[in-house]
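Data availability excerpt. The first of two example chains:
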Amino acid sequence: MLTMYHNPRCSKSRKTLEIIQDSGIDLAIVQYLQETPDANRIQQLAGLLDMPVAGLLRRGEDEFKNANDLPDLGDDSAVASWIEQHPRTLERPIVVDDEHGRAVVGRPPENVQVLLEQ
């Protein structure tokens, strides 16, 4: 089963969802603006994606650009806690295969194909 951190208002997220649903693979959908992952999960996601937590930031979001409380972006723990408090800044969509310890960001949506080929 895959887990997708999804924002239904995002076209990339909707397209990624469509690709997964068309594949027939079981999927748990987490609408992360309503069910925000905690800081520990955010750090896990970054680890699965093999990137620093700051790599999960949507730096073009107004909430990020206008933030006056940003932590040191090199401090994974602090950045994860900040993202937890500002979930709009979390990159999307993130699709996770916890069973196999893999994840991808669906930008472009076709990135998810690597998780569908098992």
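And the second chain:
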Amino acid sequence: MRLLLLVTLLLGTVRVATAQPSPDAKKEAKAAFGRAEAAERRKDWRTAIDEYQRAYDLAPHPDVLYNIAVDLERLEEYRDAATHYRRYLDESADPNDEPRVAALIDKLRARPGLVTITSDPPGAEVSIDGKRAGPAPIERRLAGTHRIEVRADAGQASREITVEFGEPATVHLSVVARAGNLAVFSNVPGASVTVDDQAAGVTPLTLPLAAGPHRVVVTADGWSSYERQVEIHPEGTTQMTANLVRPLGYVEPTPVSTEPRGFISISGGGDATGDAGGLYNLLFGGHRGRFDFGLGYGFVNKSAAFALDLRGVLTRTRVRPYLRASALLGSASSFSGHAGVLARVGTTGRAHTSVFVDVGIGIVRDPTAATDDADRALFIPLMGGVQLSY
């Protein structure tokens, strides 16, 4: 993979993008890539990551993201490694590599982390997923979701935790004789809740708490935080609703569209009946939802013509069946309907390269024909071509 990437950087054959790096940028990216490989030979993973990132910034290529992910994994920064593997998949046009890299991400997520369990009072009996683990404090290496419970003469307390990417966690549970419940709601679903500076979950949330006062803070991205002091009553449920508001001067971010807006396509084919001869189209057009519309030039019955085209795709998958209406208007004209399939073969950012084939039925008209019978004829076009969407 690295040899292929180095050749790509040397020859400048990076897949089609909206803006190609300059020759100087490619040269500097190649130098940074070489320094990264040298750092790897010295097992200086941090320097290698920095140089790979510089090479990517100058001449973006998904294989550089893969190299960064490998070095992050060597540094045991598993969450960041998984993020770069995911970015590699999102930017790569090679679907054959996806199962292997997806399995790597799952393996990193499943790595166990060191969980420290403490209790108040100390020495409470700890159970993990219903199995006794010993008196607190204890340490265990865990992965995935687990229920932690502590019991003492004063009572019991429990919490569910999720451990991913080998990250350490600390669980502190207070055992009290008298406890109540707190129910937290918010006008923004999924807002984060902390109780006494400890993460408690997301709204809507109900959790057991020791009787007495507690500080509750509710936050969400793009909203001002909500803070309140609540009193938990023994054997009861205290409810609170956090009404979050936008901060002063907040402007809703405009989503960045990743869908292409226009396209260029070249197609050619012939008439199965032999009446219309060769058929060729060069189209320029745009995308609107599931529909493509194009204008351009074409040839029918050896005559140049203006081309009009309307296509509607039936799915939004990588392989898209479609229906198409086409008209060529010139000294010889044709009107036809088609059914076909369009397959995406390459993707870089918002730019897509696709190939398509279709078959249709229509009428070709040639006023210059020698006889009236030849003026209008049924024809069956067989077409294929390439489309670049950007």
